[in-house]
Design a protein that fits this description.
The protein is mostly beta strands and about 250 residues long. About 5% of the residues lie in helices and about 40% in strands. It contains one helix and 16 strands. Strands 1-14-7-10-9 form a five-stranded mixed β-sheet. The chain has a four-stranded antiparallel β-sheet with strand order 4-3-2-6, with no helix packed on it. Strands 5-11-8 form a three-stranded antiparallel β-sheet, with no helix packed on it. A hairpin with a 5-residue loop joins strand 15 and strand 16. The radius of gyration is 21 Å and the shape is elongated. The two termini are about 25 Å apart.
């Protein structure tokens, strides 16, 4: 049975301003984000569960982890992504460092994957599907050992697999390097013109004032023993495994 521990969304908000202070003066557009990790135990019968563990790492800092401790208990910790931006204004069009990778914090070799989710919510906290997740540009480094499952991915969700075996205590290469909020968001405005006593007043309203963007990451691990069956059972995907243990999606 797959077990998941989730971190609730919300909380941390960062003001989103453009390079031109005037352009988004007074805007409260910000970001809400959460990170979580979990380990699927669907195929754990043939190994000692106490050996498994996985950690999600952002900019060389462990954000979330789930390691088996003992007696059916897990050593778990969850946290927020992008906490390094707490004191900084987010400028549309500017690149921010966002290197996400996975560490095998267990004592056996594993295969790992990451599920990324991006979305927008309005000022009432309701998800707005009219605002494209593509405006949240997490630059992925496909080819650095990571492969995207294009058949299972959508605009909001991207599933990546690390194709090699991840030895115990080792980390994958970063699957991303930068995060950018598309600068076009600062140009979406509405202007209302009123006239009184011969003077015109132009009121500018920013379309996404009060909006939040959400970035989530999930990491999980599967044993290397009987890899094809283990991955199929835990992740529901068919893979081929070469002589070096590298996997490829069918």
């Amino acid at each position: 049975m797959s077990k998941k521990k989730r971190m609730p969304l919300g909380g941390l908000t960062v003001a989103l301003l453009s390079a031109s202070v005037v352009l988004l003066a007074g805007s409260t557009v910000g970001s809400a984000r959460a990170a979580l990790t979990y380990y699927s135990e669907n195929y754990g019968a043939q190994v000692e569960v106490s050996n498994i563990g996985v950690s999600l790492v952002e900019n060389d800092k462990v954000i979330s982890k789930r390691d088996y401790a003992s007696n059916g208990k897990w050593d778990e910790a969850t946290g927020d992504l992008l906490t390094g931006l707490k004191e900084e204004k987010i400028v549309p069009g500017k690149q921010y460092e966002e290197a996400i990778k996975v560490t095998n914090s267990g004592s056996i070799d594993s295969y790992v994957r990451v599920i990324l989710k991006k979305s927008w919510t309005n000022k009432e906290g309701v998800k707005d599907t009219t605002l494209s997740p593509d405006l949240i540009d997490l630059n992925l480094k496909e080819g650095s050992g990571w492969v995207i499952d294009k058949n299972a991915s959508t605009k909001e969700r991207t599933i990546l697999y690390y194709t090699g075996i991840l030895p115990a205590g080792k980390s994958t290469p970063a699957l991303s390097d930068t995060l950018t909020i598309d600068g076009s968001i600062a140009t979406k405005v509405k202007q209302d013109v009123t006239e009184k006593d011969g003077y015109k007043t132009i009121t500018t309203t920013y379309a996404y004032d009060g909006y939040n963007f959400q970035l989530e990451a999930e990491a999980d691990a599967v044993q290397t023993h009987n890899a094809q069956d283990a991955i199929k059972s835990a992740w529901g995907v068919d893979v081929d495994v070469d002589g070096n243990g590298n996997i490829s999606l069918r």
